[in-house]
Amino acid sequence: MLHVTPAAPVLVTRSLRPNYKQGKSPLVVAPQKHPALLPGKQVPLGRMDPKALSSVLWTATMASGRAEESEPSLGESELAVNPFDGLPFSSCYYELLEQRRALPIWAARFLFLEHLESSPTGVVLVSGEPGSGKSTQIPQWCAEFALARGFQTGQVTVTQPYPLAAMSLASRVADEMDLTLGHEIGYSIPQEDCTGPNTMLRFCWDRLLLQEVASTRGPGAWSVLIVDEAQERSVASDLLQGLLRDTKLRNLPGDPRVVVVTDPALEPKLQAFWANSPIVRVPREPGGNPTLVYRDTVPTDLVEAACQAVLELCRQEEAPGDVLVYLPSEEEISLCCESLSRELGMLAVPGPPPRVLPLHPGCGQAIQAVYEDTDMSVRKIVVTHWLADFSFSLPSIQHVIDSGLELRSVYSPRIRAESQVLRPISKCQAEARRLRARGFPPGSCLRLYSKSILELEAPPLPHPKVLEENLSSLVLLLKRKQIAEPGECHFLDRPAPEALMQALEDLDYLAALDDDGDLSDLGIILSEFPLLPELAKALLASCEFNCVDEMLTLSAMLTAAPGFTRPPLCAEEAALRRALEHADGDHSSLIQIYEAFVQSGADEVWCQARGLNWAALCQARKLRAELVELMQQIELPLSQPAFGSEQNRRDLQKALLSGFFLKT
What we know:
The chain is of the alpha/beta class. Helix content is 41%, strand content 13%. Strands 6-5-7-4-8-9-3-10 form an 8-stranded mixed sheet, sandwiched between helices. A 6-stranded parallel sheet has the order 11-18-15-12-14-13, with helices on both faces. The chain has a two-stranded antiparallel ribbon with strand order 1-2.
């Protein structure tokens, strides 16, 4: 319903606003702006003339735009109405609006909206440096655009390459739009769907959206799709663009739009891929360049070198501001945070001691601590890795310490196994890290490597993940989308033919394909699970061998983030860790760790004493519950727990071999 109110304004007190947010709020429109509507009437949206509806919604959106053009006085701000929920804007909205106007992307606002309306292909490219405001402002402008069109084909969906980025951005955008997270603004990540029936702007992990697209006809139920951080080159992001290019958006009902947001380094490649699509280039952020310092040689101990560099900054009174440290892996992040916490506690510095914060996928909800400004006098030291190359903009950063290395898992089709590869970051990543220290005044960037290494060994762009991952899950999704030949799909970088062939062979060995090369009944069931095809097959086989309970636990533990934070630091911790080990090997040890975690009441202190990743174990617990619910929906049998018995041990081995026989 669209509720039309009389012209006389009604003030909603600020203290009552949260209560109003809990229910459905009408869109308040002044009747003199729409003479066809009578005051006090409720007009069903479905019965309204489309042109009148568009006029009503566009007027509301422009009212929001006028509110943004000039900050009103206190009395006027009480009257200004949010067009998305019909409630007055809060004072916090105008404070954040001033920050938004200062972003480099703001200068391109009207040009972007003009291209979004008139693009001949339905696609708009946006190119800008990290920290320019692309990820927070573009979704809001697309929501205004979709509101003006009445959300004819669904909500605005924003893809992110990392689940934590989707969650963090949704929270920030909800604050900037003065809306409620979980109602008008939401996010979808593994084991957590924070959306509702009234959600009109959703941030989503790109792999989840790819699974949704594979399960539906057409491209999906969205009015505008924003593919953010395209330069990260995730498999899902690349494949989504390929599927959308093949779809031909202008031929779809509802005239949907696609926005691809990228770093300038990938701009030429995307321009060639999306021919004839307009591009919006974000102006470069004003400000001086940070002081750049190289090391002549790479230190043998990166953690120690990074810690010493941080301590040196903390000793310098003329070097204020927060610090961002890049290390290759999560283990080194944990070691660095522990070492810095000890050293900074003993360091004699004026004011309160700095706060050390890790930033990696295993942090879970704790990642919001990076953005909390509880005390501006407390210096923050954020220790991270490749996760924060382009995502997670932190305006308070003044100093960057860059190790120049990343630890990645790379799949080899020849041996059907992944290996951990320590390699130099790309030139694009190095530049993005340097720009984190840009501002007023400009900060500093210390590179723990020589300039020759960057020039001679670093590739120009990040490695495309489609060339480095096991493609079995990808091919399974393409087959579900009824794409007969996955090799014919458009890719920004085409996978190696042998990698695609090996993925098809593996699916055939797993009985996921029929004689015609299409998905078999078993393959359709396998594609329902958020697991690797081999692991999903082992889980289904456990129904036959009566060890479903144990296999559910093992599937969750193998899929979630690693359960260990680091090696034991002392003899006592090593003894507690050994007590969790099982004589049958790693798989049984993972089950035993999970059961002990549950018996402890999911106690974080219990995990810390054993060097276990509490957030990862919580994630495994949520995933296990999701798998149980999925098996019940498919009407697959469950079994009673029997872990530890000799029969269960043999049954678990049989189930594992049913899915992983190619590893023998």
